[in-house]
Design goal:
Helix content: 25-40%
Number of helices: 15
Structural class: alpha/beta
Number of strands: 16
Amino acid sequence: MQAAVNPAPIDVLILSNGPGEVLTWVRPVVQALRSQLGQDTAQVRISVILSPCPHASGRECDLVAGMQGVDRVQDPEAFWSFVRSGKTAQVWDWRRKGVVLFLGGDQFFAVLIGKRLGYRIVTYAEWSARWLRWIDACGAARPQVMQGVAQRFQSKVHWVGDLIAEAQVINADEASVLQQLNLSPDVELVSLLPGSKAAKLCLGVPLGLAIADRLQQIRPQVQMVITVAPTLTLTDLSRFADPQTNPYFEAVEGSRAKLCQPDSGLPYLQTEQGTRVLLWTQVPAYDALAASRLCITTVGANTAELTALAVPMVVLLPTQQLDIMRAWDGIPGLLANLPFLGSGFAKLINAWVLRQGLGLRAWPNIWAGREIVPEWVGHLRPDTVGDRIAALLADPSALHHIQSELQHIRSQPGAAQRFASLVHSVLPADLTQPGMHTPPPVSLNSEKP
């Protein structure tokens, strides 16, 4: 009897960048790759290299390092040196064969690094598939990616679905979450997602705390909980609740709060009015979010995750301090972030944008082409916002309507497994486990998801 031959060991190199991509793309893909390619690091080694991102918190490297299934990670500070020299900061060795995956940053870097290492190249595209001549396959988040793809490259593009939709596999029981939080069954859980970047937190935290104070007055059965971004420490978060360390505190008429960390139970922020806002640090925070009657959030990947969970939400864009709204792309973003002059440019750009109208900013509204979750933009006052939120909570039919709309537009689950299958399909036969069955990816030019 002929002895079984082990497949050749391979390297899987994932390129990513910001906190949203790390949490909603890299994490589920790593899990799916391990389930399909195996847990044996001697056969399949998974490395992650992060590129610089203007929205990064600086803690993404630690976040990736803590992910089960990742064998090694390099922080963004060493990225450009790697691009120039081909050597990592720790001089990693590379196996003879492997695959480079693009999961955030610039798709071109996947091509450059993949060709340098002699690896297969697979990209993930939300809206536009690029560099198709030089890659082996592209996983598309939605069928619209196919638009503009030349006929000769269409066989490389396959629908896999939205990776953020992996959140919807969570089916949290509200009663069990309330029990975990030591709350009575008649409590209405409302989650606050103020973001992970200082530009959002400096307004979102004090405004959210003031909204909590207002809700405590008019709807005392409400318990608010902040789902803390994994890139934040509780001490960092609490600084935004203090006017002495948050210069934008007064702009939103915020509520001051102190951090409390009891020996048992969740930590919390307690306002001067005595309102307790719990701090949920479990990652991902899907249990708390899925059990919430309503979520208060701002624009960003949070709105896509809440869509996947079909949790009703309101999206806040306070515009009280225009000079801190600098997260624009292209030339406006460069001007708004110039030293010394950037603040003035930011004010001018944002004032002009507000006069023209922001349009739809939350992902579910963009996907639907209309407003299905409320977007409240402008000089937001906590009492007014609190009253409007209380009115929503008092109208179960309105919340149910929002939830139904979100369920209708959210993507199909299973995107991570389909993307992993696409990766598996481009690997040569001598690099895969004998007899391993992998479901074929869905080609955009043959099937409609």
